[in-house]
Design a protein that fits this description.
Blueprint: E1 14-15, H1 42-45, E2 70-71, H2 77-92, H3 97-115, H4 124-133, H5 135-143, H6 151-158, H7 162-173, H8 177-195, H9 200-206, H10 212-223, H11 227-237
Antiparallel strand pairs: 1-2
Helix pairs in contact: 2-3, 4-7, 5-6
Length: 239
């Protein structure tokens, strides 16, 4: 989960998290995962080889709702290879590894920039400050999205009034707390439809819906098709 976006992941995938973005990952109970982590500041790493006005250094597109933070090894093998090579260079630390990592990071940012949407003018500092301020609320919602929304509890976690909380949510994620929760539930449901064989009724209950009809209506409104068709479409695309 990145913000309110939810993605299934599998071995070989790479996940990109921009600074300050709320994120959380969990494996299914019967599986084990091993991750490698890279903390990359491209502006500092590439300051000697990249002009400051280089478009690939603009990270605003990585916060967009349409940006897919999880990159699959099948769909984007070059990007996953670049990340794997950076990890290998940093583990081996052979002669010239710093220059190699800079070159690989340069290519990686260019490739990622092609995937990120072009966004309008916005204040990245204000956006990051709002994300940090509501981080406790985002963390709470990430683990309790199936429960009814409790604005008072979220305000208490962030130390702000309900009006200010809604203002911060608009600034940080572009929607109200309730809209964020609904989006989160539907994204989680979509991931479960694609990555499990759970029945639709079970999925609707796990993400917080009390009736199947309400879940089906909201899901179709958001994704343009019923949950069953969404699952079939995902299964067909993997064949």
């Amino acid at each position: 989960m990145v913000g309110e976006k939810v993605f299934p992941f599998s071995a070989g995938d790479v996940c990109f998290i921009p600074p300050g973005e709320m994120h959380k990952a969990a494996s299914r109970p019967e599986t084990r995962s091993r991750w490698s982590y890279l903390f990359l500041d491209p502006a500092r790493l590439l300051v000697h080889v990249w002009p400051k006005e280089e478009p690939a250094l603009d990270l605003r597109g990585f916060y967009a709702q349409s940006f897919r933070n999880v990159v699959g090894a099948v769909a984007q093998p070059e990007i996953c290879w670049l990340v794997g090579e950076i990890v290998s260079e940093l583990r081996r630390m052979e002669s010239g590894f710093r220059s190699s990592v800079r070159g690989l990071a340069w290519a990686l940012m260019v490739r990622l920039g092609r995937l990120a949407p072009v966004v309008g003018e916005q204040d990245p500092k204000a956006h990051r400050a709002a994300i940090i301020r509501i981080a406790p609320a985002l963390q709470q919602l990430s683990t309790q999205y199936s429960r009814p929304l409790d604005i008072g509890a979220l305000c208490g976690l962030c130390g702000v009034s309900p009006t200010h909380l809604r203002r911060l949510f608009r600034r940080a994620v572009g929607r109200s707390p309730l809209e964020y929760l609904v989006q989160l539930r539907l994204q989680m449901a979509a991931a479960l439809l694609r990555s499990t064989d759970y029945g639709i009724l079970r999925i609707s209950m796990e993400v917080g819906y009390t009736t199947l009809s309400s879940f089906n209506r909201h899901f179709k409104r958001h994704f343009g098709m019923p949950p069953r068709d969404w699952r079939r479409k995902g299964q067909a695309s993997r064949r």
